[in-house]
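Q: Now give one record:
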Amino acid sequence: MKNLIIIAFTLFCFISATPVEANPKESTPEEVAKIQVKSSTQIGVIEALRSASLVVQLTMILLVLMSIVSWSVILSKWYLFKNNKIHNIPLEDIFFKASSMDEIFDLSKSYPKSSLVTIFRAGYSELKKIISSKSTSQSNNLLSGMDNLQRALNKAVSNQISYMERRLPFLATTGSVSPFIGLFGTVFGIMHSFQKIGIMGSANLAVVAPGISEALIATGFGLFVAIPAAVFYNHFINELKKAELEFNNFVTDFLNISKRNFFK
């Protein structure tokens, strides 16, 4: 958070550090026209932001911060889902080829980044508790033990889904809200442009075009921030559904193997 505040302050100082231009009221009409024609043909993004109103500048800073945070979420989630794909496949092979749960537990230490390892260890821990506890009746042991094991595995799956889903709502919010934030800046930019028209007393293209272009930058940047956030949010939601299906299948296999070997 401190880094974001520093970045915002730096951007605001950079945008606000503009050379003082001549006051239109103190210039002749010919000079004003020349200045406006020059600015309309040579204006760039930084120059437009420097000459924009304070509201537009603050809007752009907010969009920059949202873009930085959203890209950090995108990169972290991309890395998370990639690691899951890489490390989950070997663990599934070990799970079906190993001769005992203890062997799977020892081999799983080689894949600490696998989400299936966390689920397996939760089930393995609960299974060890069930085996170590002596019940008075075999049927009670079967029913209560399987229920406890299933609850432990379901809880581990829910925790993993919650962890993988964390910060994804921010991408959804960024994708849906950023265009409106940009439009908000555009509205104030156009208002600022009309105020300049009133001050200069002229409404020709050379006077209107620079102010309109400054205002539209906010809308354009709002779309620039929103599109990647919306695209990657949908991609990660699809990956999350695949991961949830994989977790549920693993839980089913774990329960079946446990029932065949420990709850006869």
